[in-house]
Amino acid sequence: MTITISRNLFWDVYFEVEQTKQRYDPSDEFDILWQYPPQFGEGYSRDIQLREGLGLLINNYQLHERLIIKVPEREGCINYGFCVSGGGEAWDVHTKNHFTWKEGQYHLSGNGAYPDAVNAGSAGERYLRVNISMSPELFRSFTGNIEGEVSPQLKHLVRKPTQERYIRSGAIAPAMQEILQQILHCPYYGMTKRMYLESKALELMMLTVEEELQIKQGKHNSTALKLDDVERIHLARNILLRNLDNPPSLIELAKQAGINDCKLKEGFRQLFGTTVFGYLHNYRMEQARSLLVAGQLSVKQVARIVGYASPTSFHAAFRKKFGINPGDYLKRC
């Protein structure tokens, strides 16, 4: 079944029940958590206004049914969004240009006119996206000269409201991955939290702008993947995650996914910003952390579920990842 709805009506549903609005951080009135409408899915959107002209949005939800949202033409800010998990698609109503986003990709878009579009999400897939929006004025304050004029290499990101926006996608680099995890697991609250998150948002801006400059100067060294390769790399990822306790070797994984092992290794770095088994390790650790937070299982049970036969190895890996022993983390939760 597919649900089709306009963006305005979707927002009406999203915000109609006051109880869905909560303070994520009781000490910060600008950090709001909105529960996802239960008729569409489950999860939340966390909206944090870091300062005038700079916002952070964390979407984490799972749809019950395929959802299509019709979005009217509008004016937008400068955005850089990171797809940590899940994916989706969009297309321009008039030109029919098709646009997809997949796990491990980011999208940089300038301000200007956003055309009439349709956004679609699939049922059953966990969607986690970090999006940072910045006003053109704030962007100029960082990238402009003393007169506020933006560098010629970046003028395409700052356009008039009547001009169509610029948009580009790229692979999330390892440095970006690390910052995203720091944002998602921010250890601070109140004033220090806002300082921390703002610094991380600006770090991500720096990395995306640096990559944009390299591309414009012809210095960015990346090999575009064919659509078929992308699909096979995602298939390999899914095979890997279905076999946490006994993952296949790299050669066997490539064989099962129907792709060359060298292309699999390179493609994994491009799409997910890490190696095949680096991705597996990070996934295991994030799963372990989530299970410990739930508080229903012992450390030994969690270690076994995420594929560690040796509790000692699990303790060492967890401490290296999060800086704390799993037992102490469980007590804290």
Brief characterization of the structure:
With 333 residues, this protein is an alpha+beta fold. The chain contains 11 helices and 15 strands.
Question: Can you walk me through this structure?
Answer:
It is a single chain. The protein is α+β, with helices and mostly antiparallel strands and 333 residues long. It has 11 helices and 15 strands. It has helices at 7-15, 136-143, 174-184, 190-216, 227-242, 250-257, 261-272, 276-294, 299-305, 311-322, 326-332, and strands spanning 2-6, 21-23, 31-35, 41-51, 54-63, 66-71, 74-76, 78-85, 87-92, 98-102, 105-109, 112-114, 117-121, 126-134, 167-171. A hairpin with a 5-residue loop joins strand 9 (87-92) and strand 10. Helix 5 crosses helix 6. It is globular, with a radius of gyration of 21 Å.
Portion of residues within helices: 40-55%
Give the rounded overall mean pLDDT.
Answer: 86
Percent of sequence in beta strands: 25-35%
- Structural category is alpha+beta
By DSSP, the count of extended strands is 15
First CA to last CA: what distance? 38 Å
Determine the number of helices (DSSP H or I, runs of at least 4 residues). 11
Order of helices and strands: EHEEEEEEEEEEEEEHEHHHHHHHHH
Could you name the ranges where pLDDT drops below 50 across 5 or more consecutive residues? none
**In angstroms, what is the radius of gyration?**
21 Å
| Largest sheet: spatial strand order | 2-3-4-5-14-8-11-15
User: How would you sum up the global shape?
Assistant: globular
Largest sheet: 8 strands, antiparallel
